[in-house]
Amino acid sequence: MLINTKIEQAQLCWQIGDWSSLVDLEHGEQPQLLLYVAAAWYQLGGIEKANGLLSGIELKGQEKDLARKLLISGVYNVLGKARACANQYQQAENLCRQSLQLDPPVSESVLNARVSEQFAQLGIPRLPDNVKPAVFSPDYGSFLQAANKLFSQEPAQQIAQAEYHQLKERFDDAIVNWQNVSGLLGSYTPQQHYDRLKDAYKSVKGFPLGSVEQETLRGDIDKHKLLSEIHKQLQPQFYFEIGVQTGKSLALAKCEALGIDPMPMLNQELPQTAKVITASSDAFFMKQADVLLSKSIDLCFIDGMHLFEYALRDFINVEKYAKPHSLIVIDDIFPGHPDQANRQRCTRAWTGDVWKVKAILEKYRPDLFIVAIDAYPTGLLLITALNPEDTILDANYHSIVDEYMAIDFVPNKIVERDKSISGKSELIKTILSFLHESKSKRLNPEEIRKNLVD
Ligand SMILES: C[S@@+](CC[C@H](N)C(=O)[O-])C[C@H]1O[C@@H](n2cnc3c(N)ncnc32)[C@H](O)[C@@H]1O
Predict the structure, then answer these.
(1) Ligand 1, CB cutoff 6 Å, lining residues
(2) Which Gene3D superfamilies match (predicted)?
(3) Which of 19, 147, 128 is nearest to 80 (CA)?
(4) Whose CA is nearest to atom 15 of ligand 1?
(5) Exposed, middle or buried by CB within 10 Å (0-12, 13-18, 19+), for 243?
(6) Which residue's C-alpha comes closest to atom 18 of ligand 1?
(7) Is residue 285 scored above 50 in pLDDT?
(8) E strand or H helix that includes residue 108
(9) ipTM
(10) pLDDT tens track for 215-250
Protein backbone atom coordinates (compact mmCIF):
# COMPACT_ATOMS: atom_id res chain seq x y z
CA MET A 1 0.00 0.00 0.00
CA LEU A 2 1.31 3.43 -0.90
CA ILE A 3 1.49 5.76 2.05
CA ASN A 4 0.87 9.21 0.66
CA THR A 5 1.07 11.48 3.63
CA LYS A 6 2.30 11.51 7.19
CA ILE A 7 -1.31 11.62 8.40
CA GLU A 8 -2.20 8.48 6.47
CA GLN A 9 0.88 6.82 7.92
CA ALA A 10 -0.16 7.89 11.43
CA GLN A 11 -3.71 6.65 10.81
CA LEU A 12 -2.45 3.29 9.68
CA CYS A 13 -0.15 2.85 12.71
CA TRP A 14 -3.00 3.96 14.96
CA GLN A 15 -5.53 1.56 13.44
CA ILE A 16 -3.18 -1.36 13.87
CA GLY A 17 -2.14 -0.12 17.29
CA ASP A 18 1.57 0.02 16.47
CA TRP A 19 2.32 2.58 19.16
CA SER A 20 6.13 2.36 19.01
CA SER A 21 6.22 3.28 15.31
CA LEU A 22 3.72 6.04 15.92
CA VAL A 23 5.78 7.77 18.62
CA ASP A 24 8.81 7.69 16.30
CA LEU A 25 6.92 9.52 13.57
CA GLU A 26 8.20 12.98 12.65
CA HIS A 27 5.23 15.12 13.68
CA GLY A 28 6.21 18.79 13.63
CA GLU A 29 3.42 21.07 14.87
CA GLN A 30 0.63 19.58 12.77
CA PRO A 31 -2.30 19.24 15.26
CA GLN A 32 -3.71 16.02 13.75
CA LEU A 33 -0.30 14.34 13.82
CA LEU A 34 0.31 15.54 17.37
CA LEU A 35 -3.00 13.98 18.40
CA TYR A 36 -2.10 10.60 16.91
CA VAL A 37 1.37 10.62 18.48
CA ALA A 38 -0.03 11.68 21.87
CA ALA A 39 -2.60 8.87 21.65
CA ALA A 40 0.27 6.43 21.17
CA TRP A 41 2.15 7.85 24.17
CA TYR A 42 -0.97 7.38 26.30
CA GLN A 43 -1.04 3.72 25.27
CA LEU A 44 2.62 3.32 26.16
CA GLY A 45 2.10 4.94 29.56
CA GLY A 46 3.99 8.09 28.54
CA ILE A 47 1.32 10.37 29.92
CA GLU A 48 3.67 13.28 30.55
CA LYS A 49 5.06 13.04 27.02
CA ALA A 50 1.51 13.01 25.65
CA ASN A 51 0.45 15.96 27.77
CA GLY A 52 3.59 17.84 26.71
CA LEU A 53 2.77 17.33 23.04
CA LEU A 54 -0.78 18.53 23.50
CA SER A 55 -0.11 21.50 25.74
CA GLY A 56 -0.69 24.73 23.93
CA ILE A 57 -2.22 23.28 20.77
CA GLU A 58 -5.52 24.80 19.85
CA LEU A 59 -7.93 22.37 18.27
CA LYS A 60 -10.47 23.50 15.74
CA GLY A 61 -13.61 21.91 14.28
CA GLN A 62 -12.81 18.43 13.01
CA GLU A 63 -9.60 18.24 15.06
CA LYS A 64 -11.78 18.31 18.20
CA ASP A 65 -13.75 15.37 16.84
CA LEU A 66 -10.51 13.52 16.15
CA ALA A 67 -9.26 14.21 19.71
CA ARG A 68 -12.49 12.80 21.14
CA LYS A 69 -12.32 9.75 18.94
CA LEU A 70 -8.70 9.02 19.85
CA LEU A 71 -9.32 9.47 23.57
CA ILE A 72 -12.31 7.23 23.70
CA SER A 73 -10.71 4.66 21.49
CA GLY A 74 -7.72 4.71 23.82
CA VAL A 75 -9.91 3.84 26.79
CA TYR A 76 -11.34 0.81 25.05
CA ASN A 77 -7.91 -0.32 24.01
CA VAL A 78 -6.56 -0.06 27.56
CA LEU A 79 -9.66 -1.78 28.94
CA GLY A 80 -9.04 -4.54 26.39
CA LYS A 81 -5.40 -4.93 27.38
CA ALA A 82 -6.39 -5.01 31.06
CA ARG A 83 -8.82 -7.82 30.32
CA ALA A 84 -6.12 -9.71 28.45
CA CYS A 85 -3.81 -9.37 31.46
CA ALA A 86 -6.62 -10.81 33.58
CA ASN A 87 -6.80 -13.83 31.19
CA GLN A 88 -10.23 -12.75 29.95
CA TYR A 89 -9.30 -13.14 26.31
CA GLN A 90 -12.68 -12.99 24.64
CA GLN A 91 -13.68 -9.80 26.41
CA ALA A 92 -10.22 -8.41 25.69
CA GLU A 93 -10.61 -9.04 21.99
CA ASN A 94 -14.06 -7.51 21.97
CA LEU A 95 -12.88 -4.34 23.71
CA CYS A 96 -9.89 -3.94 21.38
CA ARG A 97 -12.31 -4.22 18.46
CA GLN A 98 -14.64 -1.67 20.02
CA SER A 99 -11.76 0.76 20.14
CA LEU A 100 -11.91 0.94 16.34
CA GLN A 101 -15.66 1.09 15.99
CA LEU A 102 -16.15 4.79 16.54
CA ASP A 103 -15.68 5.71 12.95
CA PRO A 104 -16.98 4.65 9.58
CA PRO A 105 -16.30 0.91 9.84
CA VAL A 106 -12.77 -0.39 9.32
CA SER A 107 -12.20 -3.71 7.57
CA GLU A 108 -12.12 -7.05 9.37
CA SER A 109 -8.42 -7.42 8.56
CA VAL A 110 -7.62 -4.10 10.26
CA LEU A 111 -9.66 -5.14 13.31
CA ASN A 112 -7.77 -8.43 13.42
CA ALA A 113 -4.46 -6.66 13.05
CA ARG A 114 -5.30 -4.35 15.96
CA VAL A 115 -6.23 -7.24 18.26
CA SER A 116 -3.20 -9.33 17.30
CA GLU A 117 -0.86 -6.40 17.76
CA GLN A 118 -2.24 -5.59 21.22
CA PHE A 119 -1.98 -9.22 22.33
CA ALA A 120 1.53 -9.48 20.89
CA GLN A 121 2.63 -6.36 22.77
CA LEU A 122 1.56 -8.08 25.98
CA GLY A 123 3.25 -11.34 24.98
CA ILE A 124 -0.08 -13.17 25.09
CA PRO A 125 -1.02 -15.72 22.41
CA ARG A 126 -4.31 -14.87 20.77
CA LEU A 127 -7.22 -17.28 21.09
CA PRO A 128 -9.46 -17.67 18.06
CA ASP A 129 -12.68 -18.29 20.09
CA ASN A 130 -16.00 -16.71 19.20
CA VAL A 131 -16.17 -13.17 20.45
CA LYS A 132 -18.87 -12.48 23.00
CA PRO A 133 -20.07 -9.05 24.12
CA ALA A 134 -18.09 -7.65 27.01
CA VAL A 135 -19.71 -8.08 30.40
CA PHE A 136 -18.38 -5.93 33.19
CA SER A 137 -17.98 -8.29 36.12
CA PRO A 138 -17.53 -7.12 39.72
CA ASP A 139 -13.82 -8.05 39.83
CA TYR A 140 -13.39 -5.40 37.20
CA GLY A 141 -14.28 -2.56 39.57
CA SER A 142 -10.75 -1.92 40.74
CA PHE A 143 -9.53 -1.54 37.18
CA LEU A 144 -12.31 0.89 36.37
CA GLN A 145 -11.44 2.90 39.45
CA ALA A 146 -7.82 3.05 38.31
CA ALA A 147 -8.86 3.97 34.77
CA ASN A 148 -11.02 6.69 36.23
CA LYS A 149 -7.99 8.24 37.93
CA LEU A 150 -5.65 7.64 35.02
CA PHE A 151 -7.82 9.17 32.33
CA SER A 152 -8.48 12.56 33.73
CA GLN A 153 -9.40 13.68 30.23
CA GLU A 154 -13.02 13.57 29.32
CA PRO A 155 -14.78 11.65 27.79
CA ALA A 156 -12.59 8.75 28.89
CA GLN A 157 -13.21 9.61 32.52
CA GLN A 158 -16.95 9.81 31.95
CA ILE A 159 -17.03 6.31 30.49
CA ALA A 160 -15.00 4.85 33.32
CA GLN A 161 -17.26 6.63 35.82
CA ALA A 162 -20.41 5.48 34.04
CA GLU A 163 -19.28 1.86 34.11
CA TYR A 164 -18.25 2.18 37.72
CA HIS A 165 -21.61 3.65 38.78
CA GLN A 166 -23.41 0.96 36.81
CA LEU A 167 -21.35 -1.67 38.59
CA LYS A 168 -22.29 -0.17 41.94
CA GLU A 169 -25.96 0.04 40.83
CA ARG A 170 -25.98 3.83 41.08
CA PHE A 171 -27.99 4.06 37.88
CA ASP A 172 -29.02 7.72 38.08
CA ASP A 173 -25.33 8.71 38.31
CA ALA A 174 -24.50 6.34 35.45
CA ILE A 175 -27.20 7.99 33.31
CA VAL A 176 -25.65 11.40 33.88
CA ASN A 177 -22.21 10.08 32.90
CA TRP A 178 -23.45 8.34 29.75
CA GLN A 179 -25.34 11.46 28.76
CA ASN A 180 -22.18 13.50 29.33
CA VAL A 181 -20.36 11.08 27.02
CA SER A 182 -22.92 11.82 24.30
CA GLY A 183 -22.38 15.53 24.87
CA LEU A 184 -18.63 15.09 24.40
CA LEU A 185 -18.62 12.61 21.54
CA GLY A 186 -21.47 14.13 19.56
CA SER A 187 -22.10 12.32 16.30
CA TYR A 188 -19.32 9.84 17.17
CA THR A 189 -21.34 8.44 20.08
CA PRO A 190 -21.39 4.72 19.28
CA GLN A 191 -24.47 2.52 19.64
CA GLN A 192 -22.82 0.55 22.46
CA HIS A 193 -22.96 3.69 24.65
CA TYR A 194 -26.66 4.11 23.99
CA ASP A 195 -27.08 0.42 24.86
CA ARG A 196 -25.39 1.00 28.22
CA LEU A 197 -27.51 4.14 28.78
CA LYS A 198 -30.62 2.07 28.07
CA ASP A 199 -29.45 -0.57 30.58
CA ALA A 200 -29.14 2.19 33.17
CA TYR A 201 -32.59 3.63 32.30
CA LYS A 202 -34.16 0.18 32.61
CA SER A 203 -32.66 -0.31 36.08
CA VAL A 204 -33.04 3.18 37.55
CA LYS A 205 -35.82 3.49 40.11
CA GLY A 206 -36.59 7.09 39.17
CA PHE A 207 -34.53 10.15 38.60
CA PRO A 208 -34.07 12.24 41.78
CA LEU A 209 -36.79 14.88 42.01
CA GLY A 210 -35.73 18.52 42.29
CA SER A 211 -37.60 21.14 44.32
CA VAL A 212 -41.14 22.16 43.30
CA GLU A 213 -39.76 25.28 41.55
CA GLN A 214 -37.08 23.30 39.75
CA GLU A 215 -39.68 20.88 38.42
CA THR A 216 -42.10 23.59 37.22
CA LEU A 217 -43.90 22.74 33.98
CA ARG A 218 -46.31 24.94 32.02
CA GLY A 219 -48.35 25.22 28.87
CA ASP A 220 -51.95 25.68 27.83
CA ILE A 221 -52.26 22.59 25.64
CA ASP A 222 -50.79 19.13 26.03
CA LYS A 223 -48.12 18.56 23.37
CA HIS A 224 -49.51 15.19 22.27
CA LYS A 225 -52.96 16.75 21.87
CA LEU A 226 -51.50 19.50 19.71
CA LEU A 227 -49.44 16.99 17.70
CA SER A 228 -52.60 15.01 17.10
CA GLU A 229 -54.33 18.18 15.81
CA ILE A 230 -51.37 18.85 13.55
CA HIS A 231 -51.63 15.34 12.05
CA LYS A 232 -55.37 15.77 11.49
CA GLN A 233 -55.07 19.11 9.74
CA LEU A 234 -51.88 18.56 7.80
CA GLN A 235 -52.68 15.00 6.71
CA PRO A 236 -49.04 14.17 5.98
CA GLN A 237 -48.23 11.30 3.65
CA PHE A 238 -44.94 10.60 5.35
CA TYR A 239 -44.12 11.31 9.01
CA PHE A 240 -40.61 11.11 10.46
CA GLU A 241 -39.77 11.15 14.16
CA ILE A 242 -36.46 11.46 16.00
CA GLY A 243 -36.79 10.16 19.57
CA VAL A 244 -39.55 7.55 19.90
CA GLN A 245 -39.22 6.22 23.46
CA THR A 246 -42.58 4.58 24.34
CA GLY A 247 -44.12 5.38 20.94
CA LYS A 248 -46.74 7.78 22.26
CA SER A 249 -46.12 10.48 19.66
CA LEU A 250 -45.36 8.02 16.84
CA ALA A 251 -48.72 6.32 17.43
CA LEU A 252 -50.46 9.56 16.40
CA ALA A 253 -49.36 9.14 12.78
CA LYS A 254 -52.03 7.65 10.54
CA CYS A 255 -49.80 7.72 7.46
CA GLU A 256 -46.57 5.92 6.60
CA ALA A 257 -44.24 6.75 9.47
CA LEU A 258 -40.65 6.13 10.50
CA GLY A 259 -39.22 6.64 13.99
CA ILE A 260 -35.54 6.60 14.97
CA ASP A 261 -34.28 5.96 18.49
CA PRO A 262 -31.05 4.33 19.71
CA MET A 263 -32.90 2.97 22.75
CA PRO A 264 -36.63 2.70 22.06
CA MET A 265 -38.75 1.45 24.96
CA LEU A 266 -42.05 0.88 23.17
CA ASN A 267 -45.18 0.31 25.21
CA GLN A 268 -47.79 1.70 22.79
CA GLU A 269 -49.56 -0.10 20.03
CA LEU A 270 -48.29 1.34 16.78
CA PRO A 271 -50.22 1.35 13.50
CA GLN A 272 -48.90 -1.13 10.91
CA THR A 273 -47.79 1.81 8.80
CA ALA A 274 -45.28 2.87 11.47
CA LYS A 275 -41.75 1.50 11.62
CA VAL A 276 -39.09 2.00 14.30
CA ILE A 277 -35.37 1.76 13.68
CA THR A 278 -32.94 1.35 16.56
CA ALA A 279 -30.27 3.90 15.73
CA SER A 280 -29.14 7.32 16.82
CA SER A 281 -30.21 10.05 14.44
CA ASP A 282 -26.55 10.69 13.55
CA ALA A 283 -25.96 7.05 12.64
CA PHE A 284 -29.24 6.97 10.72
CA PHE A 285 -28.40 10.02 8.63
CA MET A 286 -24.89 8.75 8.00
CA LYS A 287 -25.84 5.26 6.89
CA GLN A 288 -29.54 4.79 6.12
CA ALA A 289 -31.29 8.06 5.35
CA ASP A 290 -30.66 8.11 1.61
CA VAL A 291 -32.41 4.76 1.22
CA LEU A 292 -35.13 5.06 3.86
CA LEU A 293 -36.08 8.68 3.25
CA SER A 294 -36.80 8.24 -0.44
CA LYS A 295 -40.19 9.93 0.10
CA SER A 296 -39.90 13.52 1.20
CA ILE A 297 -40.80 14.24 4.82
CA ASP A 298 -44.12 16.10 5.20
CA LEU A 299 -44.08 16.31 8.98
CA CYS A 300 -41.21 15.71 11.38
CA PHE A 301 -41.02 15.71 15.17
CA ILE A 302 -37.53 16.25 16.60
CA ASP A 303 -37.54 14.95 20.18
CA GLY A 304 -34.25 13.06 20.55
CA MET A 305 -31.18 13.93 22.63
CA HIS A 306 -31.74 16.99 24.83
CA LEU A 307 -28.58 18.82 23.83
CA PHE A 308 -28.78 21.74 21.41
CA GLU A 309 -26.09 20.55 19.02
CA TYR A 310 -27.92 17.24 18.55
CA ALA A 311 -31.24 18.96 17.84
CA LEU A 312 -29.45 21.37 15.51
CA ARG A 313 -27.82 18.51 13.58
CA ASP A 314 -31.20 16.81 13.43
CA PHE A 315 -32.79 19.95 11.99
CA ILE A 316 -30.00 20.37 9.40
CA ASN A 317 -30.34 16.74 8.31
CA VAL A 318 -34.14 16.66 8.24
CA GLU A 319 -34.39 19.84 6.18
CA LYS A 320 -32.38 18.14 3.42
CA TYR A 321 -35.20 15.59 3.02
CA ALA A 322 -38.08 18.06 3.31
CA LYS A 323 -40.11 20.25 0.95
CA PRO A 324 -40.66 24.00 1.42
CA HIS A 325 -44.19 23.39 2.77
CA SER A 326 -43.10 20.58 5.16
CA LEU A 327 -43.38 21.21 8.88
CA ILE A 328 -40.68 20.45 11.44
CA VAL A 329 -41.71 20.47 15.11
CA ILE A 330 -39.04 20.65 17.82
CA ASP A 331 -39.81 19.72 21.43
CA ASP A 332 -38.27 21.05 24.68
CA ILE A 333 -37.65 24.63 23.63
CA PHE A 334 -38.97 26.11 26.90
CA PRO A 335 -37.43 24.92 30.17
CA GLY A 336 -39.84 25.58 33.06
CA HIS A 337 -36.90 26.50 35.31
CA PRO A 338 -33.27 27.39 34.44
CA ASP A 339 -32.01 24.18 36.09
CA GLN A 340 -34.00 22.07 33.62
CA ALA A 341 -31.82 23.57 30.89
CA ASN A 342 -28.53 22.33 32.36
CA ARG A 343 -26.55 20.21 29.96
CA GLN A 344 -25.82 17.89 32.85
CA ARG A 345 -29.19 16.63 34.03
CA CYS A 346 -30.01 17.47 37.65
CA THR A 347 -33.83 17.52 37.60
CA ARG A 348 -36.49 15.00 36.64
CA ALA A 349 -37.96 17.42 34.08
CA TRP A 350 -35.09 17.94 31.66
CA THR A 351 -35.08 20.01 28.48
CA GLY A 352 -31.32 20.42 28.30
CA ASP A 353 -30.28 23.44 26.26
CA VAL A 354 -32.48 22.70 23.24
CA TRP A 355 -33.84 26.26 23.67
CA LYS A 356 -30.65 27.42 21.89
CA VAL A 357 -31.84 25.91 18.61
CA LYS A 358 -34.66 28.45 18.50
CA ALA A 359 -32.13 31.27 19.03
CA ILE A 360 -29.80 29.82 16.38
CA LEU A 361 -32.52 29.47 13.75
CA GLU A 362 -33.79 32.99 14.44
CA LYS A 363 -30.28 34.39 14.04
CA TYR A 364 -28.90 32.34 11.16
CA ARG A 365 -32.04 31.46 9.22
CA PRO A 366 -34.28 34.53 9.07
CA ASP A 367 -35.68 33.03 5.86
CA LEU A 368 -37.56 30.36 7.86
CA PHE A 369 -41.06 30.80 9.28
CA ILE A 370 -40.88 29.99 12.99
CA VAL A 371 -43.58 29.95 15.67
CA ALA A 372 -43.03 29.06 19.33
CA ILE A 373 -46.01 27.49 21.07
CA ASP A 374 -46.86 27.56 24.76
CA ALA A 375 -47.47 23.80 24.82
CA TYR A 376 -47.34 21.64 27.95
CA PRO A 377 -44.91 20.62 29.36
CA THR A 378 -41.90 22.26 27.66
CA GLY A 379 -43.13 24.12 24.57
CA LEU A 380 -43.02 23.27 20.87
CA LEU A 381 -41.37 25.06 17.97
CA LEU A 382 -43.01 24.95 14.53
CA ILE A 383 -40.75 25.61 11.55
CA THR A 384 -41.65 25.80 7.88
CA ALA A 385 -40.67 27.59 4.63
CA LEU A 386 -37.84 25.08 4.59
CA ASN A 387 -35.08 25.14 2.03
CA PRO A 388 -33.35 21.79 1.43
CA GLU A 389 -30.69 23.60 -0.63
CA ASP A 390 -29.68 25.99 2.14
CA THR A 391 -26.13 25.43 3.46
CA ILE A 392 -25.68 28.22 6.04
CA LEU A 393 -26.11 26.00 9.10
CA ASP A 394 -24.12 23.12 7.70
CA ALA A 395 -21.24 25.31 6.55
CA ASN A 396 -21.03 27.17 9.88
CA TYR A 397 -21.95 24.27 12.16
CA HIS A 398 -18.73 24.17 14.21
CA SER A 399 -18.52 27.92 14.81
CA ILE A 400 -22.23 28.08 15.70
CA VAL A 401 -21.79 25.24 18.20
CA ASP A 402 -18.75 26.96 19.73
CA GLU A 403 -20.69 30.24 19.96
CA TYR A 404 -23.71 28.74 21.72
CA MET A 405 -21.78 26.22 23.83
CA ALA A 406 -20.21 29.23 25.54
CA ILE A 407 -23.65 30.42 26.74
CA ASP A 408 -24.24 28.89 30.16
CA PHE A 409 -27.37 30.72 31.30
CA VAL A 410 -30.95 30.70 30.09
CA PRO A 411 -32.37 34.13 29.25
CA ASN A 412 -35.44 34.97 31.35
CA LYS A 413 -37.51 35.53 28.25
CA ILE A 414 -37.07 31.85 27.40
CA VAL A 415 -38.28 30.63 30.79
CA GLU A 416 -41.12 33.15 30.56
CA ARG A 417 -41.98 31.95 27.04
CA ASP A 418 -41.79 35.45 25.66
CA LYS A 419 -43.52 35.83 22.25
CA SER A 420 -44.91 32.31 22.31
CA ILE A 421 -48.47 31.82 21.13
CA SER A 422 -51.23 29.88 22.83
CA GLY A 423 -51.57 26.25 21.79
CA LYS A 424 -55.26 26.97 21.22
CA SER A 425 -54.65 29.97 18.96
CA GLU A 426 -56.54 30.16 15.66
CA LEU A 427 -53.25 31.14 14.06
CA ILE A 428 -52.03 27.55 14.33
CA LYS A 429 -55.07 26.33 12.40
CA THR A 430 -54.49 28.99 9.75
CA ILE A 431 -50.84 27.97 9.34
CA LEU A 432 -51.68 24.27 9.10
CA SER A 433 -54.48 24.79 6.64
CA PHE A 434 -52.24 26.96 4.44
CA LEU A 435 -49.47 24.32 4.50
CA HIS A 436 -51.97 21.60 3.65
CA GLU A 437 -53.22 23.56 0.64
CA SER A 438 -49.67 24.44 -0.45
CA LYS A 439 -48.82 20.78 -1.05
CA SER A 440 -50.11 20.79 -4.59
CA LYS A 441 -48.95 24.33 -5.41
CA ARG A 442 -45.19 23.81 -5.49
CA LEU A 443 -44.48 27.15 -3.82
CA ASN A 444 -40.86 28.01 -3.11
CA PRO A 445 -39.67 28.73 0.48
CA GLU A 446 -39.88 32.48 -0.02
CA GLU A 447 -43.48 32.29 -1.24
CA ILE A 448 -44.44 30.07 1.69
CA ARG A 449 -42.91 32.48 4.17
CA LYS A 450 -44.37 35.56 2.52
CA ASN A 451 -47.88 34.09 2.53
CA LEU A 452 -47.59 33.07 6.18
CA VAL A 453 -46.18 36.41 7.32
CA ASP A 454 -48.95 38.24 5.45
C1 LIG B 1 -38.45 12.45 25.28
S2 LIG B 1 -38.14 10.93 24.57
C3 LIG B 1 -39.19 10.91 23.15
C4 LIG B 1 -40.65 10.91 23.45
C5 LIG B 1 -41.57 10.70 22.28
N6 LIG B 1 -41.26 11.54 21.15
C7 LIG B 1 -43.00 10.99 22.69
O8 LIG B 1 -43.40 12.15 22.70
O9 LIG B 1 -43.71 10.04 23.02
C10 LIG B 1 -36.55 11.17 23.90
C11 LIG B 1 -36.02 9.96 23.18
O12 LIG B 1 -34.89 10.37 22.43
C13 LIG B 1 -34.04 9.29 22.33
N14 LIG B 1 -32.69 9.71 21.94
C15 LIG B 1 -31.64 10.00 22.73
N16 LIG B 1 -30.56 10.26 21.98
C17 LIG B 1 -30.94 10.16 20.70
C18 LIG B 1 -30.26 10.29 19.45
N19 LIG B 1 -28.96 10.62 19.40
N20 LIG B 1 -30.95 10.08 18.32
C21 LIG B 1 -32.28 9.77 18.36
N22 LIG B 1 -32.97 9.62 19.51
C23 LIG B 1 -32.31 9.81 20.66
C24 LIG B 1 -34.09 8.64 23.70
O25 LIG B 1 -33.72 7.29 23.63
C26 LIG B 1 -35.55 8.83 24.08
O27 LIG B 1 -36.27 7.67 23.85
Answers:
(1) 242-246, 248-249, 260-263, 280-281, 303-305, 310
(2) Vaccinia Virus protein VP39
(3) 147
(4) 305
(5) buried
(6) 280
(7) yes
(8) helix 108-121
(9) 0.99
(10) 999 999 999 999 999 999 999 999 999 999 999 999
